[in-house]
Amino acid sequence: MIALSLDDDGVATVTLDRAAARNALPTTAWRTLAQIVADVPDTARVLVIASRVPGIFSAGADLADLARLVEDVPARAAFRCAMAAAMEAIRARAMPVVAWVDGGCFGAGVALALACDLIVASPAAHFAIPPARLGIGYPAPDVARLAARLGQGQAARLLFTAAPIDAGEAWRIGLVDMIADGADIARSIAQNDAAALRLLKRTLRDASAPALNDAFESSFSSPAFAAGVARYRRTP
């Protein structure tokens, strides 16, 4: 259902592979996703969240699994916490994390993409957040990330209308960072220095942290910088 691979270039890929359910994830799968993401080796330079199923990134939460929440009240919190754990596991990784959306991305699948640092979509990508049609809400942290990325107006549009948008519209409103091949973007990231990537990610997350000033100054002592300066000096 969920697999992890690591190539020689330092690109780790977590792939969703539940074709029969269009990569819809039940509670147990969210827990598995959290554990697999946490298990990504620290040697990875970049992590990609992608799908192995053609035409779909994720249909979100598994409605067959959610149906039991009508009567199983304790299971409601278990589902919410399992989903939150997966998002926080992604956000906790020190390396850049790329969501590679090729095809449909719906509901909790959008929340999954929002947990990543960069959302790359193919021209075939399309998005919708349909809980309003189902009579339920959307987790508060995911609403906050959606609003932070899009602004209140566009976040409200997606949540209140539940209407689908294509890749071009997603890029226009800022839900998608670029329309490209996610694997190519990941390889271009992996060509860079791992320590520098992690420092830049920390800075993007909280540029006001005092320790970042020392970290920036210390980066000039890195072997990668010394090698880069040496190459520059040898350039005619």
What's a concise summary of this model?
The chain is of the alpha/beta class and 236 residues long. Helix content is 49%, strand content 17%.
Q: What would the keywords be for this entry?
A:
single chain, 236 residues, 2-enoyl-CoA Hydratase, Chain A, domain 1, six-stranded mixed sheet, 49% helix, 17% strand
For the record, the CATH architecture of the largest domain stands as: Alpha-Beta Complex
- CATH fold group of the largest domain: 2-enoyl-CoA Hydratase, Chain A, domain 1
| Secondary structure tally: strands | 10
Q: Output the CATH homologous superfamily of the largest domain.
A: 2-enoyl-CoA Hydratase, Chain A, domain 1
What is the N-to-C succession of helices and strands?
A: EEHEEHHEEHEEHHHEHEHHHH
The biggest sheet amounts to: 6 strands, mixed
Summed up, the domain count is 2
Count the DSSP helices: 12
User: What share of the residues lie within helices?
Assistant: 40-55%
Shape designation: elongated
Tell me the distance between the termini: 52 Å
Please describe what this structure looks like.
The strands form two sheets. Strands 1-2-3-5-7-10 form a six-stranded mixed sheet. A four-stranded mixed sheet has the order 4-6-8-9. The chain is built from twelve helices and ten strands. It has helices spanning 27-38, 63-66, 73-92, 108-114, 131-134, 140-150, 152-161, 167-173, 182-190, 194-205, 211-218, 223-234, and strands spanning 2-6, 11-16, 46-51, 56-58, 97-101, 104-106, 118-121, 126-128, 165-166, 178-179. It has two domains: 2-188, 2-enoyl-CoA Hydratase, Chain A, domain 1 (Alpha-Beta Complex); 193-234, no CATH class. The chain is an alpha/beta fold and 236 residues long. Helix content is 49%, strand content 17%. The longest helix has 20 residues, at 73-92.
